[in-house]
Amino acid sequence: MNLIFLGPPGAGKGTLAAKAVGILKVPHISTGNIFRAAIAAQSPLGLNVKAIIDAGKLVNDEITIELVKERLAQEDAQKGYILDGFPRTIPQAEALAGFSRVDTVVNFDLPDGSVLERLGGRRVCRQCGVNYHQTFNPPKKTDVCDACGGEVYTRDDDREEAVAKRLEVYRDQTAPLIDYYRQKGLLTGVDARPSVDQVVENFRKAVGV
Ligand code: AP5
Ligand code: MG
Ligand code: ZN
C-alpha cells in the first residue's frame, strides 16, 4: 500500500508512521528525517538545507523531488511506503504522480493550539529520529532514547519563530493539497487530537488495516 501522511507540523505524522510501519511492514520515508540526517552528517545536501530548515521554510522542490524519486526507486519501497512530509506543495504532488501511484492520502487533523503544545514539548532522538514529548511521552531516562540509547534533543526548528513560520508555510503551500487529493478521491481524514493509541485506531479504521 502506497500512503501519504498529510497534516500540519506537529500533527503526529512521524509518531503515527512509526506505529503504522509495524502494522503495514512498509518503509517510513520522512523527507524531514532525511534532511536532518544529512545535516547531522554535514553532507553537501545537509550544508545546503540547514539554514532553510532552521528558519522553518521549505527546501526547494527540485532538490526534494529528486531525493524522493531516488528513495522510492529502492528495493524496500516496491512493496509499499508511508511518505511523511512529502508532497508539501502542488508541484511536488504533480511530480510524484509522474513516478509513483498513490493509493491513499491520510490527512491528520489538529487545531493550531494543539500544534503549539505538541511542538513546544517535542524531543527527538539525534541518532534514530524517534519522537518524544516532555509531558505526553517522555523517554524513560531523561534525554536518552528508549529505542537506541542516542541523545534526545530539541529540534532547531521547534523554536517559537520557526514554528510560526512553519505554520504559515503549511497554510500557504501545503494545505491546498487537501483539496487537491480530495478531488482525486484519494483523501481520508483522521482526527489527530486523541491519545497516540486512539489515533492509531482512527487510522486503522480510516485505511481499513
Ligand atoms: P518535517 O520533519 O516533516 O516537519 P513537519 O512537517 O513540520 O512535521 P513535524 O515532524 O514537526 O511533525 P509530525 O507531524 O511528524 O509530529 P510528531 O510525530 O513529531 O520537516 C521539517 C522541515 O524539513 C520542513 O520545515 C522543511 O524545511 C523541510 N522539508 C521536509 N519535507 C519537505 C518537503 N517535502 N519539501 C520541502 N521542504 C521539506 O509529533 C509532534 C509531537 O507531539 C511529539 O513530541 C510527539 O511525541 C507528540 N505527539 C504525537 N502524537 C501525539 C498524540 N496523539 N498525543 C499527544 N502527543 C502526541
Ligand atoms: Mg515529523
Ligand atoms: Zn534513538
Task: Briefly say what this structure is.
The protein is an alpha/beta fold and 209 residues long. Helix content is 47%, strand content 15%.
Features:
209 residues; alpha/beta; Rossmann fold; 5-stranded parallel β-sheet; 3-stranded antiparallel β-sheet; 9 helices; 47% helix; 15% strand; globular; binds BIS(adenosine)-5'-pentaphosphate; binds magnesium ion; binds zinc ion
* Low confidence ranges: none
Morphology: globular
- Which percent bin holds the helix content? 40-55%
> Mean pLDDT, rounded to whole units?
96
Q: What does this 3D model show about the protein?
A:
By secondary structure, the protein is of the alpha/beta class. The protein has a domain at 2-112 and 174-207: P-loop containing nucleotide triphosphate hydrolases (Rossmann fold), CATH 3.40.50.300. It is built from nine helices and eight strands. Strands 2-3-1-4-8 form a five-stranded parallel β-sheet, sandwiched between helices. Helix 2 (31-40) packs across helix 3 and helix 4 packs parallel to helix 5. The N and C termini lie close together (10 Å). The relative contact order is 0.20. The mean pLDDT is 96. The structure holds BIS(adenosine)-5'-pentaphosphate, magnesium ion and zinc ion (ZN). The site of magnesium ion (MG) has 4 residues, from helix 1.
Topology of this protein?
Elements: E1 2-6, H1 13-24, E2 28-30, H2 31-40, H3 44-54, H4 61-72, E3 81-84, H5 90-99, E4 104-109, H6 112-120, E5 122-125, E6 131-133, E7 152-153, H7 160-174, H8 176-183, E8 187-191, H9 196-207
Helix pairs in contact: 2-3, 4-5
Bound molecules: BIS(adenosine)-5'-pentaphosphate (AP5), magnesium ion (MG) and zinc ion (ZN).
Magnesium ion binds next to α1.
